[in-house]
Amino acid sequence: xxxxxxxxxxxxxxxxxxxxxxxxxxxxxxxxxxxxxxxxxxxxxxxxxxxxxxxxxxxxxxxxxxxxxxxxxxxxxxxxxxxxxxxxxxxxxxxxxxxxxxxxxxxxxxxxxxxxxxxxxxxxxxxxxxxxxxxxxxxxxxxxxxxxxxxxxxxxxxxxxxxxxxxxxxxxxxxxxxxxxxxxxxxxxxxxxxxxxxxxxxxxxxxxxxxxxxxxxxxxxxxxxxxxxxxxxxxxxxxxxxxxxxxxxxxxxxxxxxxxxxxxxxxxxxxxxxxxxxxxxxxxxxxxxxxxxxxxxxxxx
Length: 301
Hints:
By secondary structure, the chain is mostly beta strands. Among the domains are: 6-68, no CATH class; 114-141. Helix content is 9%, strand content 17%. Strands 1-2 form a two-stranded antiparallel sheet. It is elongated.
């Protein structure tokens, strides 16, 4: 390269790179690079020939600039917020980056990466997300479970990907499709963009829940927010059948049947009314016991 061409290369600003901000160029700024741009605020590398900063992750690097469509600052002084798959977003054709690197089906791309997952406001002072109601997580990338977000203190708030593999999460099933995308650990390679984002309650129980022997088909605490409590269970003393035997009985939700020795939960033995707020039985006349499982021999029927 001749000295004249080299001098021109130093003095003339280069073409703008995609999603990068090119700043007013002077010979001094071009030669001395980013010293006059606060040395990229300690969050980037100076590219003197381009007269611009290349910011690090968290301050608008190339990937973040592509997702956002812009850089938040020319000198890497303004932080970005955590990114997650958008809860909304418009699909774009495959082969384009208009959707910001989202995931979708075979004919399009959707749910692009977005700051705060498009469900929160980015605080540019701190680089943290202020989430909208019913969303949580560093990138507002998780739904809040009912019961004030904590399942009323009587359950665990878990994502669908985890619940799909649990034997005690409702609806009960022993015929789990382990090839389903919800069983795969890495959401980057599945179409189930929401497998970690959508969350629900798996309620607590003092007894084992499931379809196996000595397990019950229903948990002690129940309801979407685990705020209701079942009453003691028992066999109806007025019938010859064992109502607590759930062998080959279809579990609530219609997904699985009880194995041999599986138990049905019968609130108050069918001979009382359950107060689901307190989990206590109000027995019908002629019956008594914690589960109304006893019959008064002197009662008239």
